[in-house]
Amino acid sequence: MQDNLVKTVIRLNNVTYQYPQGESLHFADLEVPSGQHTLILGDSGSGKTTLLHILSGLLKPTTGMVDIDGQPLYELPARKLDEFRGQRIGLIFQEAHLVKSLTIKENMQIAQGFAGAKVDNTRINEVLALLNLDHKADSYPNKLSRGQMQRAAIARAVINKPAILVADEPTASLDDRNTESVLNLLLTQADQQGATLVIATHDKRVKNRITRAYEMATRPALSNK
Ligand code: ADP
Ligand code: MG
After folding, report:
1. Which of 38, 89, 137, 173 is the most exposed place for a label (fewest CB within 10 A)?
2. How confident is the model at residue 219 (pLDDT cuts 50, 70, 90)?
């Protein structure tokens, strides 16, 4: 039964994924109430990144159902799914770079465009200011430091006020001080923008800050032998 006041933002039912000629992964069911930031924990190779891609509408599961913010994700036609992702899902993947030929501000504008929204420069200025990047609005990504790049990726992910904010090992290569500041930013942004965080990690420093966890199955259970 669902509480009327607390929405379920993620629901995963009987989801499996079979890589062609590869591993068969089975994911335990998951239900995340709005605002309950959740860690995805598991060893390397256990399927965390695969799961995040499935939750983000980037990888259609072989079986099962994925609901995000009340929408059965894979019932949407491709174009609608792209638009839904742009509106409701903020992605922070390690490889997801900003478009290099566009300024930081222009990158935010195309993120609004992908979501089918009008360009809203007031919103862009507000988010860049929150992330202490207002002075970089007209800079190109290659002029930013690493920390600024990471903040720009977060800015892009939250620009459309997503329901869920998905991050893949966001602190893996950071020292303690930067880990602390990225976690603070993610938590503050999620709370201010009303997003629920989903973070794949095995970083103890993250576990200290977010206690709700979803554990990946251990290797033997995943074996397709
Ligand atoms: P994690 O993020 O937890 O390290 P992944 O989701 O990346 O795990 O990978 C889960 C399993 O799926 C691993 O055994 C990996 O080798 C396999 N896998 C990942 N991507 C592919 C792919 N594109 N093709 C075939 N197998 C893959
Ligand atoms: Mg991974």
Report:
1. 173
2. low
Q: Residues near 60 by Cβ (< 8 Å), separated by ≥ 6?
A: 54, 74
- C-alpha closest to that of 86 among 66, 51, 53, 112: 112
Residue 178: CA count within 13 A, CB half-sphere: 13
CA of 200 to the centre of ligand 1 (A): 14
pLDDT in tens, 93-111: 876 679 999 999 999 999 9
User: What superfamily would CATH give domain 2-224?
Assistant: P-loop containing nucleotide triphosphate hydrolases (3.40.50.300)
Cβ-count burial 46-74 (b if 16+ within 10 Å, e if not): bbbbbbbbbbbbbbebeebebbbbebebe
The full set of domain ranges for the chain reads 2-224
pLDDT of 191-211, one tens digit each? 988 999 999 998 999 999 998
25, 39, 46: which to mutate for ligand 1, most atoms within 8 A of CB? Answer: 46
